[in-house]
Amino acid sequence: MKIAFDAQLLLKPDLTGIGRYAENILKNFKQQTYELELNVLVGKHEKIYLPAVEEYKKYGYKIRKNFGCSGVLYKLITAVLPLPYHIFFSKDMDATIFFNYIVPPGVKGKKIVFIHDMAYKVYPETLRIRTKIWLNLNIRRSKRRADKFITISEFSKKEMVKYLNIHPDNIEVIYAGVDFDIYHPNYTREKIESVKNKYHISKDYFMYLGTIEPRKNIVGLIKAYYKIKEKFFGKQPKLVLAGKRGWLYKEIDIWIDKLQLNRDIIFVGYITEEESAVLINGAAAFVFPSFYEGFGLPPLEAMACGTPVISSKVASIPEVVGDAGILVDPESEEELYYAMLDIMQNKELANMLSEKGIQRAKKFTWENSSKNLLKVIESVV
């Protein structure tokens, strides 16, 4: 059997959410029976990122590159003209897997597509207008083209049934996993202090990791943190926000200025996975009060590090965190404030959550995720 993966996501310089999911699935897709290929359309400005894709040769993939059209240009063309995918890549694939919502036109063999969440339906105000239009148009087309759909939580499966009217029997759930070589509780104090110094973090701190955008409820976190500052008269831990700034982030800056928290909140921007893991290890708690998640990988990775987790009790997050973290209503700044306060004042609670988190995280492995994907492919083909 010949299996191809659309690897366009790997040409991005800084992988987040979906890109990291694809990366870890591909690295752990270990089998000796089938021929594996990665497909990438490489534009002029994307050639510098090709070495990141070429690295996958060591995992047993053949890299099929096409320099005639960039991924962005192909996306624009297929919005109005059904330019066949097979023109650029092999026509004799038994199955092609697409990680990012869309099945393009003219794909030979079986088509399997990941749809990670329904945020564009539930929180359309948090997306650019052109992104909403593109998703609405192309996911309808993907419904007709796909032979199987995969999503990343039971919650997201229910959302797909609700919003896309896809029969549940045609949707498989494959959870994300943890890279335990990176996310673990065994970093030394010296390593933690070294990374803290790099980002000018001189005190204890709470930490958030993810895209800096409205759907992640950063404003709610900032307001809850302000209450912590008021209680401790400026002697509270810092708040570290890690991740790329996303759509509509300026409201976050407005609230930081309004509450005069510029000296208390530290933006570290996009950081490597290892630095993320080190900083999570050093945090008093990992706080992730998102309004909506298809899965919620950052809280899982924080649990693997043994850091107490405070997160939302909505969407998919309870599936991931279970009873190994404090779950709060993301609409309630009071609940978030008291959860952060509990971690600060109750060492026994913090230790219990640390131990529970480590054990809970062990249930989620990328090896299992990749094995489950292979089962889906075999069942479809």
Descriptive account of the structure:
The chain is α/β, with parallel strands linked by helices and 381 residues long. Helix content is 41%, strand content 16%. It is built from 15 helices and 13 strands. The protein has helices spanning 17-27, 50-54, 71-80, 119-122, 129-145, 154-164, 189-198, 218-232, 250-258, 273-282, 297-304, 317-321, 333-345, 347-361, 366-380, and strands at 2-6, 35-41, 61-66, 95-98, 110-114, 148-151, 171-173, 205-209, 238-242, 265-269, 285-288, 309-312, 326-328. The strands form two sheets. The chain has a seven-stranded parallel β-sheet. A six-stranded parallel β-sheet has the order 10-9-8-11-12-13, sandwiched between helices.
